């Protein structure tokens, strides 16, 4: 419909560090827009704004309330694949390429970690297409 992926723009802010503790560090986006897509997990690309040339980093993004951890506030968390770039304070675009699945509550953190690994595989496939 847009002819390009929908993008969320904002600044990367510190989160609670939970992604890092389970092996999937995330960039937490403080979005500059009010229109946020449906909750779920997306294959995405993170774009560092102000960089020349533009760098697009393959990623997987969760939009939602993190129900496994009894979250109540909407968050946008992006795990950049194959990179440990420091993004704190950076302005970025998160381009949502493909919705992988809805957000859901898992019975355990181990179950969530296994699903994130599957989400990453699906994101890699979608981003390679």
Quick recap of the structure?
With 129 residues, the chain is α+β, with helices and mostly antiparallel strands. It has two helices and six strands, in the order E-H-E-E-E-E-E-H. It has one domain (6-128): Riboflavin kinase-like (Elongation Factor Tu (Ef-tu), domain 3).
Structure, explained:
With 129 residues, this protein is an alpha+beta fold. The protein has a single domain, classed as Beta Barrel (Elongation Factor Tu (Ef-tu), domain 3). The protein contains two helices and six strands, in the order βαβββββα. The chain has helices at 18-21, 109-128, and strands at 6-13, 27-31, 40-48, 56-64, 75-80, 91-101. The chain has a six-stranded antiparallel β-barrel. Strand 3 (40-48) and strand 4 form a beta hairpin. The two termini are 18 Å apart. The model has no long low-confidence stretch (mean pLDDT 90).
Keywords:
129 residues, alpha+beta, Elongation Factor Tu (Ef-tu), domain 3, 2 helices, 37% strand
Characterize the main sheet.
6 strands, antiparallel, barrel
Radius of gyration, in Å, reads 14 Å
Question: Strand tally, please?
Answer: 6
String of helices and strands:
EHEEEEEH
Q: Structural class given helices, strands, pairing?
A: alpha+beta
**Average pLDDT:** 90
């Amino acid at each position: 419909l847009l002819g390009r992926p929908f993008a969320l723009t904002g600044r990367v802010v510190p989160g609670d560090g939970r992604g890092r503790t389970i092996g999937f560090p995330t960039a937490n986006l403080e979005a500059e827009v009010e229109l946020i897509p449906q909750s779920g997990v997306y294959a995405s690309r993170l774009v560092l704004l102000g960089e020349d040339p533009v760098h697009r980093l393959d990623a997987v993004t969760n939009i939602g309330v993190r129900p496994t951890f009894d979250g109540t506030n909407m968050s946008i968390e992006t795990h950049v694949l194959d990179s440990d770039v420091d993004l704190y304070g950076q302005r970025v675009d998160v381009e949502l390429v493909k919705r992988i699945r809805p957000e859901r509550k898992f019975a355990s953190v181990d179950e969530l970690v296994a699903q994130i690994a599957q989400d990453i595989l699906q994101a890699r496939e979608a981003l390679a297409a």
